[in-house]
Amino acid sequence: MKKIEKPFFKNFLNMAGLNSWHIQGYKNQLFLINILYRSNFLGIIQMPAIQGL
Predict the structure, then answer these.
(1) Is the pTM for the entire model greater than 0.70?
(2) What DSSP state is assigned to residue 43?
(3) How far apart are CA 46 and CA 53, in angstroms?
């Protein structure tokens, strides 16, 4: 991701109640995307931003 997008995403994770340890690999990345999808948070951040992790 771009350096500008990282702080925003970290703040979003804090808002979502998720810790940074959720993002450690590809499987955890898909796990996070699944949580965001089920929680209907995809309307807040776009998919390209998630894929750029």
Answers:
(1) no
(2) T
(3) 12
